[in-house]
Amino acid sequence: MSTPDITADIDADIDAEIDAGTIDQRGGRERLVVVGNGMAATRLVEQLVANGYPGHVTVLGDEEVPAYNRILLSAVLEGTHDRDAITLRRGDWFAEHGIDLRLGSRVLAVDRDYGDVMLVDGTTIPFDRLVLATGSIPTLPPMRGLIRHDGSLHPRVHAFRSVADCEGLDEAVAARPGSRAVVVGGGLLGLQVARALSLRGLQVEVVEATEHLLSRQVDEAGAKVLRRSLTKLGTTVYTGARVTRLVDPPGGGSVTDDGPVGLQLDNGFVLETDLVVLTAGGRPSTALARGAGLEVRRGIVVDDTLTSVTDGRISAIGDCAQHGGVVHGFVAPAWEQATVLADRLCGGDVTHAGSRVVARLRATDLDVAVLGDPVGADGEVVEVSNPLAGKHSRLIVQDGRIVAASLVGDLSRVGIITQHYDHGTVLGIKEHGDLLLPDVVPTPTVLPDEAEVCACAGVTAGAIRACTSLEHVKESTRATTGCGGCANACRDLLAEKLGAPVGGTGGTRPHAAFTSV
Fold it and tell me: I need a labelling partner for 463 at 20 to 30 A (CA). Which of 112, 147, 313, 329 fits?
């Protein structure tokens, strides 16, 4: 009787694992390199640790500081958050879990033929699997005088994307108390920064190129209510106007002096200001992917497994990824993608079907929540507006289901509306309108355990109730670590369980936030 060729079987198994990318061809563990150390990358690494990923992980962060919550930078600027409170994971956490975290490591190129990435200092790092979580980069308006000959921004102009940007703007504000600022961009980030600067005592003006504020999130009627509220709060708004150049200030002096500058609009009007803050959006950071020959449209094109359609060893998540023709700029989709990819890297077979859009801005005295695409979605419109009270609510309904919504000024019903939106609940003919009307006699609402409290991390009320403190909530569920909009709800649920008020920790106080990565 012949003896089975066990060696041949083992060799065949190893070859299959190599082909599948699950084993290092040199006999070690799978080498996973993550380019990026932002919110998407951090969530991915957390899930890999939670799932027991057996490979070796290297994380390459462009910035010199540990990962932080970029969404809450405006809260730091406003002063409602300490800088340390927005840190996501410190270096010792990575070391404790055997992860090679390299800060200040900018990647120059990805070489798919050699299977490595090269840093700007010439160091090469080999990979078996590569994840691009490179995020987005700020879009600079086509404004003359913005960039100096050395490539830097004019000293009166500040971008607002990184912690370094935030610190630079904070120093400028502190050096010129009571000064004037123009915020270029009337989107979610622009309004958040405008409120932060206003609360710091600056005279603030907002310039938005489209016809109304938040043009991608709310309709014209909602934008008018929002503009009226901002005006009451002391912020001047210009819409349908584009900035064209920095010029000498109307009051005298020169644009090259250490004084105010003039900001000329396309209608010829000139705004004199001490600071200019650029918040006019961003675009996916795809230079590495393009240089590596991956398919890139607006973002890095990935399939339902979040794998590049060009190279099965490479994945992309977060702001830089394009799935199903869509690029998201919000934290919830980025975290969903990170969770799916971590599961797959650990041997799971879950796929990514797409993400819902839940955007929320909660500035001091300014509230906006958006579900889906209330500007572009088709359907019947149910809306209630009270401009005098600064409130405007709008639902888009298809076959009885809420497919999109925007709420300005009053978020008291956002929880129940979000539940119906998520579950696709078919509502009765009067129920949609009733959702937008306040109760005649307000009654306490007890959230069921299955109700979602944190849209960013998909955390339910039951999961919050299972925790013993706000720190326990953050560590075990990651609720409150995204946009922060669920912080008060989490405190209320804990207080309900513990029978005592629950305060913030770690330098965190009630704050303003919006759900964008």
Answer: 329
